[in-house]
Specification:
Layout lengths: L3 H13 L5 H20 L10 H11 L5 H20 L26 H11 L3 H13 L3 H5 L6 E2 L5 E5 L5 E6 L2 H13 L19 H15 L8 H13 L3 H8 L4 H5 L8 H8 L3
Antiparallel strand pairs: 1-2, 2-3
Length: about 290
């Protein structure tokens, strides 16, 4: 019999070795922290005593006034936790196996208008590092995680500029072209980049890799200063995809740049390329 707190500790150790993103690890840990506290209140101190009904009660309590997406995130964490316990023979029956996901409403992605992304650029211009990050995301559609994993050796700026994109385990995922705007922004950043032993491209003044949370906070601040409402860092990626499809870039090319494994993920942006704010993008380029 394994105590639920000990099981939780072992799961945390597993997560830290799993190669999952820091954001995902924090999310899983928060959900399982809440679950363990809930189970201890119910006097369910050992993992093998937990039932499917217990988990349903937890989700019902923790999911009050939450969106289907938020509730599903909890379910994902629970399934991962109990799958780990089952694989390591801490339990013989998996109570999370039969948990079902809620149907999520498909929300329209936030696509920045020409006025908005130009205002964002103008706001960030005084900070060469963050200007380069914003420009790189706008011009390539890469994720914030991919930005933070870029090494100096991943840059190939001579002739036809390219950038190597790595996965969470630092393995090469794809090599994407850099247009002149992205290349220029990176070159200007390299001129002022602090001298440091770190191979990571985007670093702090003390030479450490920038935390994704700091990037989010800074870009959110830029949005606010630029008067851009209801926008997140990930919307730079949405804007890239929608813009290029509107301009006639092939679905395959956009999918490759963005790292979409399924072309249907990219095709969904076609539904949103005829909105009023996108008409200006037809006439203008990034």
């Amino acid at each position: 019999m394994v105590h639920i707190s000990h099981a939780h500790k072992k799961f945390k150790e597993h997560l830290n070795k799993s190669g999952k993103s820091p954001h995902t690890i924090r999310s899983y840990e928060k959900h399982i922290d809440d679950l363990v506290n809930f189970l201890l209140e119910m006097k369910k101190e050992h993992a093998h005593l937990v039932t499917k009904d217990d988990l349903k009660k937890f989700i019902a309590k923790a999911g009050k006034k939450k969106s289907a997406k938020s509730i599903n995130a909890k379910t994902v964490a629970l399934k991962s936790f109990f799958r780990f316990l089952e694989m390591n023979e801490y339990i013989t029956e998996n109570p999370a196996h039969a948990l079902e996901y809620l149907k999520e409403k498909e929300t329209k992605p936030r696509i920045l208008s020409v006025v908005e992304y130009r205002a964002l650029r103008d706001t960030a211009k005084n900070d060469i590092r963050y200007y380069a990050i914003i420009e790189l995301m706008l011009q390539t559609g890469i994720t914030i995680g991919e930005v933070t994993r870029i090494k100096l050796s991943d840059l190939h700026l001579k002739n036809d500029a390219k950038l190597d994109i790595r996965d969470r385990k630092e393995k090469l995922n794809r090599s994407i072209p850099l247009n002149s705007s992205a290349k220029k922004a990176i070159e200007e950043y390299l001129e002022v980049r602090p001298k440091a032993k770190s191979e990571t491209l985007f670093i702090t003044r003390t030479g450490k890799a920038i935390d994704p949370r700091n990037i989010r906070m800074t870009i959110d601040s830029c949005y606010k200063k630029a008067g851009i409402k209801d926008a997140r860092v990930h919307d730079l990626r949405h804007t890239f995809c929608a813009h290029h499809l509107k301009k006639g870039t092939s679905i395959a090319a956009v999918a490759y740049m963005a790292g979409h494994k399924n072309l249907n993920t990219t095709r969904k942006y076609l539904e949103f390329t005829k909105s009023p704010e996108m008409e200006e993008i037809e006439k203008n380029s990034l």
